[in-house]
Amino acid sequence: MTRPSGVEERPEAGGLNRDVVVRVDRRTNRALLVVVPVVILLCLGILSSLNILPRLHNPFGERIIDRSQPVLLQSIQDLSRYEAASGNFQVVVDLERDAKFLPDFVRGQRTLFVGVGSVDAYVDFSRIGRDGVTVSGDGNRADLRLPHAQLERAALDTKNSYVFAQRQGLLNRIGAFFSSNPNSQQQVYALAQAKIEQAAQDTALTARAEQNTRTMLEGMLRSLGFREVTVQFAGQP
C-alpha cells in the first residue's frame, strides 16, 4: 500500500503498534496564503469589469462637502456700453525673489507662471454729448459724434492659467510648510494681469472696437430709414 507524501510510519517494538507522523510543508502553506487572495481579487476585478458584480466603493474615499453661504447681491449698475471687440492674450511671468547676502538655494524663490486672459474694448454711449447726434431736416441724414473706445480691465482666466515651474530655497520651503502665503500667488496673478493690460494698449484693439461700432450703427440707422449715416469718434475717452 502506497503512503501519501509527507506521511511517515514508525513501527514500535514488537511490530504491533505504529505511530503515524504527518509532515506539513510550511513553504506550501505560505505560498497558498499569498496565491489564494491574489486569485480571489483577480476574479472579483474581472467580474466587476464585466458588470457581473456591483461596483465596490472605497470606504475610505474622499468626499466634498459644500457649506458655502448663499450668494449676496450687493448692487446693480445700469450699463450703457457697447462691447465692440475683445482680445485674448497669454503671458509668461518670470518672478524671482532674492535675499541679500544669501545664496538662492538658502533663501530665494523663482516662479514661472503662464497667465491667460482677455481684454474687452467698449464705447461708452453715456458720454455722448448733446450735439453728439444730429439729424437733418428731411430725416435722410444722421451724424453721430462718439467718444473714443476704451479698454476694460484684463480678466484673467484662472482655469487655464497655471504655475509652470517653481524653485524655492531651503528657508522658503520651511516657511511654506508651516504657514501658507496666499499673497505670493496673488502677486503673480496681479503681475500677469498688469502685463496683459499693457500689451492690450499696444495693439489695435480700440481701433477695431471703433470700426465695429461704426458698422453696427450705420447698419441699424439705415434700417430705420436714414440714407446717409456718418459716425465720428472725437474727444478724450
SSE map:
Elements: E1 7-11, E2 18-22, H1 26-49, E3 81-98, E4 108-124, E5 133-135, E6 141-146, E7 150-151, E8 155-156, E9 162-168, H2 170-178, H3 182-201, H4 205-223, E10 228-233
Parallel strand pairs: 6-10
Antiparallel strand pairs: 1-2, 3-4, 4-7, 4-8, 4-9, 5-6
Put simply, the count of helices is 4
Number of domains: 2
Give the end-to-end Cα distance, rounded to a whole number of Å: 112 Å
Which class do the helix and strand fractions yield? Answer: alpha+beta
Which value, in Å, is the CA radius of gyration?
Answer: 39 Å
Mean model confidence by pLDDT:
75
Low-confidence stretches: 171-179
Strand content: 25-35%
Helix content bin: 25-40%
Describe the main β-sheet briefly: 5 strands, antiparallel
Principal-axis shape: elongated
Give me the count of strands.
Answer: 10
The SSE order reads: EEHEEEEEEEHHHE
Structure description:
The chain has 237 residues and is an alpha+beta fold. The chain has helices spanning 26-49, 170-178, 182-201, 205-223; strands at 7-11, 18-22, 81-98, 108-124, 133-135, 141-146, 150-151, 155-156, 162-168, 228-233. The strands form three sheets. Strands 3, 4, 7, 8 and 9 form a five-stranded antiparallel sheet that branches. The model is unreliable at 171-179 (pLDDT under 50).
Structural descriptors:
5-stranded antiparallel beta sheet; single chain; about 240 residues
At a glance:
With 237 residues, the protein is α+β, with helices and mostly antiparallel strands. 30% of the residues lie in helices and 30% in strands. The chain has helices at 26-49, 170-178, 182-201, 205-223; strands at 7-11, 18-22, 81-98, 108-124, 133-135, 141-146, 150-151, 155-156, 162-168, 228-233.
